[in-house]
Amino acid sequence: MINILAFCLNLLIFQKDTSGITYEDYQRAINDYKPLLVDIRAYKTTPEEARSRFQQIMHTMKEAHPTVSYDSSEVSLFFPLMGFDYRAVGGRNGSGFRAEGYDLFDQNAKGSHPAHDIFIKDKNQDCKDDRTGDYVSILSVSDGIVIGTENNWQPGSEYRGGNYIWVYDTTTGGLWYYAHQKEIYVKTGDVVKAGQKISIIGRTGYNAAMKRSDTHLHLTYLRIDEEGNPFPVNTYGWLKNAVTLLDPRIAADLKPLALHINFRLLKIKPKTLPTLSFKAPATKTEPQPIEEKKRKRRSRA
Questions:
Q1: Which domain holds residue 76?
Q2: Pairing with 180, which of 32, 113, 165, 299 sits 20 to 30 Å away (CA)?
Q3: Is 177 in contact with 132 (CB distance < 8 Å)?
Q4: How are beta strands 197-201 and 137-139 bridged, if at all?
Q5: How many domains does the chain fold into?
Q6: 241 in any annotated domain
Q7: Is 0.85 surpassed by the pTM of this model?
């Protein structure tokens, strides 16, 4: 009920400021976003067509929220994992972020990672943090409108995001993407506030479900330019300064997680380890002259 009232209030506000957008236009833009993602994933649309549809949706959202503005120096967030802080972000100083090659509209585009993975300690992979024994809540990092969710991912599916949430940020006019969740507690059209619980961390998604993968949240932010095109932004600085309420049980053990990716990359394969032997010195030395004479005498005897 609260979400419905907030939605109606937002609608009344923007209808006073805009003449070209109706309630039907706004609702259609929100409801059209997930079908667009599905069509991209299923190769039912070309990248050019997908970009045009995306731009139309983003223009509608920005026109409906005319106060949105992007200023990277002014962005203020809630940290998305309850009880954690930026030290849980994988890679040294956020080095896991790689935007090169990213293309939201081309399913064949590979190799980029325009996101930060935020890890919990989950050795037995039950989606509970080992230090607390509890599931970890995922919080909305900002105020926004949910424009797409998936909550029915099944093991064996090749879809990489698993259970996901897309949120249109009503402050910056960008998009937040949360992936791999176990359970989702919001739906398309919901109004969310910064710090609100929206899901719990999980292991859904083709790669995230594999044993080799550690339990984590995949978090992406896309800045939307004036033409309605998406550009990934490295949010490590924002996450480092985000509002958080640390759990002391987690905080005491966060430092190793900050180097998570680096430790895996530096792992030495067993075959590269030196072979140790206790039967002879590691380095050979030439026999001393006196020892050589004794050896010759013994051989003649």
A1: 67-263
A2: 32
A3: no
A4: antiparallel
A5: 1
A6: yes
A7: no
